[in-house]
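Researcher: I'd like a structural prediction for the single chain below. Treat it as a standalone chain; there are no partners to consider.
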Amino acid sequence: MKQFLKTSLIVILVLIACISAPWLLLYLGLSAGEDPPKPAYSYGEFPFYLEYEINGQRIIVDDKVIVKYAGIGLSEGTGKYIKWKQTLGSGNKEVILFEDGESETLIFTIRDRDYHLEENEEGNKYDSRPDVYRKARKENMRSVEVMTERELLKYYKIKLIKFEYGEPLKKRLAE
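Model: Treating it as a single chain, here is the predicted structure.
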């Protein structure tokens, strides 16, 4: 019986080592890499203006995205990267266009504005209109999909009238 327990314990330890060793090696390799350079700015405010109509009622959202430097992250896909925390100035987590109880929500996604705080090597403009995501829940199933403006109008009577970013405020140089 003691021999069986010893053998079982050894087999379990070997299995754990075989399963965890590749992940441990990956982590050690990535964490040994060089940290990305700290960004020139560690804080930014990006005001935006959204005007839309739902069932004939015009709604205006005048808010700002606040982006703060949150340190260095580690991902097996990209290695070390700069982490950012993004919130809305209003205190809301997201801009909700439509909500039907617990079953359906339409969210106007403000893309990650940290893009403007990091160096943009490609020189691309990042001021296109954000997407609207439809999050649906039905019993134990959940789905997320991007909605076109045509679908918003057809299924929800929502018309996006105007969206624009204001002048960004960048401050607090990283040390």
